[in-house]
């Protein structure tokens, strides 16, 4: 299932940005996130700060998020915010919705603090550098 979802997202990113899917490689970290309103224990738990994925993770060229829960139904807060000079653009998570974007400085973003409930998502990221590629995750 994970490989199928990754391939489908990879195809859509390639189509949207006009590149060959064969030039996109899965990269790390690809991760599942569960965010609620508990206090952060370390700075790594402070997900709400503005950041650029390419700076934060290094290998990211394209970032995608597959949402597994619904904004305002399963959790409050937790919306994804692109921080633009003119005006911010906000994505409201919905289970099954995929958002994707280039990972460079053109896409400074943050996630609002979750006020109640739990926000679930999977981050699946791609690189154009085969040296930074990883294999699809497997269950052991």
UniProtKB/TrEMBL annotation:
<dbReference type="InterPro" id="IPR044862">
    <property type="entry name" value="Pro_4_hyd_alph_FE2OG_OXY"/>
</dbReference>
<protein>
    <submittedName>
        <fullName>OGFD3 protein</fullName>
    </submittedName>
</protein>
<dbReference type="GO" id="GO:0051213">
    <property type="term" value="F:dioxygenase activity"/>
</dbReference>
<keyword id="KW-0223">Dioxygenase</keyword>
<dbReference type="GO" id="GO:0031418">
    <property type="term" value="F:L-ascorbic acid binding"/>
</dbReference>
<keyword id="KW-0479">Metal-binding</keyword>
<dbReference type="InterPro" id="IPR005123">
    <property type="entry name" value="Oxoglu/Fe-dep_dioxygenase_dom"/>
</dbReference>
<dbReference type="GO" id="GO:0005506">
    <property type="term" value="F:iron ion binding"/>
</dbReference>
<feature type="domain" description="Fe2OG dioxygenase">
    <location>
        <begin position="28"/>
        <end position="130"/>
    </location>
</feature>
<keyword id="KW-0560">Oxidoreductase</keyword>
<dbReference type="InterPro" id="IPR039210">
    <property type="entry name" value="OGFOD3"/>
</dbReference>
<dbReference type="InterPro" id="IPR006620">
    <property type="entry name" value="Pro_4_hyd_alph"/>
</dbReference>
<dbReference type="GO" id="GO:0016705">
    <property type="term" value="F:oxidoreductase activity, acting on paired donors, with incorporation or reduction of molecular oxygen"/>
</dbReference>
<dbReference type="Pfam" id="PF13640">
    <property type="entry name" value="2OG-FeII_Oxy_3"/>
</dbReference>
<keyword id="KW-0408">Iron</keyword>
<dbReference type="GO" id="GO:0016020">
    <property type="term" value="C:membrane"/>
</dbReference>
